[in-house]
Specification:
The protein has about 450 residues and is mainly alpha-helical. Strands 1-2 form a two-stranded antiparallel sheet. Helix 3 crosses helix 5, helix 11 crosses helix 17 and helix 12 crosses helix 17.
Length: about 450
């Protein structure tokens, strides 16, 4: 499930890069780029030029950096490139005051194919400049401690420069995160530490290649085979993400189709399922359900009654109490639902297992398998309680709707026998804090497309 969440985040990131930057993002990235260019210009004018390499060598390093920057390993909402393989040689061999300008120029050049093809919106040309702050710290460290011809003895000096690189990169990442779309601090640190370890390994390789290149510039070409190998891995990763995203789109399309069929067959069931989806979202937040598990939970909430398609309408809409035989027929809808979703397989096959258990009771007296307590999947326990609350607070042909307070009292009375007590507590808090909006069809479609839908109104009476 964590992998599914990663694939979803990668897909969202790809779509975001194709979209126009909003005003806030343009302001943040524009201000960052302007400030970076000002600092880079000051360094270029203020620091002495102690190295005078061939112009062809400098141009080759810039081109190499641009090429390496196009090797992108996507993860979550971002991507990483093995830029350190060329950044260290630039830091060792190029005129030190001009390093930030050279890095920003190469980074901008690396995005030109994306901008011209439409993979990036043209507004995003500013982003690579804005993200070049990592190059400032190493230049300041080397300028302060010495930047002559590099030797192995200078390894501690360049290790300090690498530390300054991480500090600058990490600092800008945290600032941008706070100004734009904050993610939890712990998650941001975890992601950054993972990339920092890779950067440390690649920087050590780049340092060695740069040392050799200081004596034999042609040795810099040895970076090529390694970059080619990394590019093969990166493209394979991109293709696997693309295939997974296409599969998830097919799943969402199938869910949407089944939802439409349910609505056509029985408008009440469709309306009821949408209200259960909204309740489930609130409970998932309250219980701290991991993000990677929520898509299955939301799909199960939307499709928990899909098996009723197979139940005769005269039984479903009977304006009186069902006979024992009729109720036995209705009880088969969980198995019918699982059968339908099993035929799709994959993600929806797992959703089908939840659908099958959505009428199991905490005390083991539910159906169809008589599961009890922790044997019942958590998602099924959540859907079961939400299903009951929604049914109690909805008008039916054979009885009027119960009040919110009466329905919650009924849930509390049956907590520990019919329902999971923790789920009842979470549902009670969600409803008392502000009963979720019953989502219209458009909002459900937005959910299936991976967008957020309205969560709560004012406090429920």
């Amino acid at each position: 499930m964590a992998l599914m969440l990663a694939e979803q985040l990668v897909g969202e990131a790809r779509e975001r890069r194709r979209r126009r930057m909003d005003a806030r993002e343009r302001t943040v990235d524009g201000a960052s780029a302007a400030a970076f260019l000002l600092v880079a210009l000051v360094l270029a004018l203020a620091l002495p030029v102690e190295r005078h390499p061939d112009l062809a060598l400098v141009a080759g390093l810039v081109v190499g950096y641009a090429i390496v920057s196009r090797v992108r390993f996507e993860f979550g909402e971002a991507y990483v490139s093995p830029e350190e393989l060329v950044f260290l040689p630039i830091l060792l061999l190029a005129p030190l005051p001009y390093v930030p300008v050279l890095v920003a120029t190469a980074a901008l050049a690396s995005t030109l194919p994306d901008l011209s093809s439409g993979n990036w919106h043209h507004h995003r040309w500013i982003t690579p400049i804005s993200d070049s702050w990592f190059s400032i710290g190493p230049v300041l460290v080397l300028a302060a401690l010495g930047s002559g011809t590099p030797t192995v003895v200078d390894a501690p000096l360049y290790a300090a420069a690498f530390g300054a690189q991480l500090a600058g990169d990490c600092g800008w990442a945290f600032i941008r995160n706070r100004l734009l779309n904050p993610i939890p601090f712990r998650e941001l640190c975890t992601n950054y530490l993972a990339t920092a370890r890779v950067a440390a390994v690649l920087s050590s390789i780049g340092f060695v290649i740069g040392l050799v290149g200081a004596q034999e510039p042609l040795a810099l070409l040895t970076i090529g085979p390694l970059v080619w190998l990394l590019d093969v891995f990166a493209r394979d990763r991109q293709e696997r993400y693309a295939a997974a995203l296409e599969l998830h789109r097919a799943y969402r399309g199938t869910v949407m189709l089944l939802s439409d069929v349910v609505e056509f067959e029985d408008p009440y069931t469709a309306h009821h399922s949408r209200s259960v989806v909204d309740l489930v979202q609130g409970i998932a937040e309250e219980l701290g359900v991991p993000q990677g598990d929520r898509q299955e939970l939301e799909f199960a909430a939307l499709l928990h009654d899909v098996g009723k398609i197979a139940i005769p309408k005269e039984i479903l809409n009977k304006p009186a109490k069902l006979t024992e035989q009729e109720f036995e027929i209705v009880k088969t809808h969980t198995i019918e639902g699982q059968f339908m979703l099993d035929r799709v397989g994959g993600l929806l096959g797992r959703v089908g297992e939840i659908v099958r258990s959505c009428h199991e009771r905490w005390d083991g007296n539910g159906y169809p398998d008589g599961l009890a307590g922790e044997e019942i999947p958590v998602a099924a326990r959540v859907v079961f309680a939400c299903d009951a609350y929604s049914a109690m607070t909805t008008d039916r042909v054979y009885r009027p709707a119960m009040s919110t307070d009466a329905a919650l009292d009924e849930l509390r009375v049956n907590a520990g026998t019919q329902f999971d007590p923790d789920v009842v507590s979470a549902l009670t808090k969600v409803v008392e804090d502000g009963e979720p909006v019953i989502a219209p069809v458009e909002s459900v479609r937005a959910l299936l497309a991976g967008m957020k839908v309205p969560q709560r109104l004012g406090a429920a009476s």
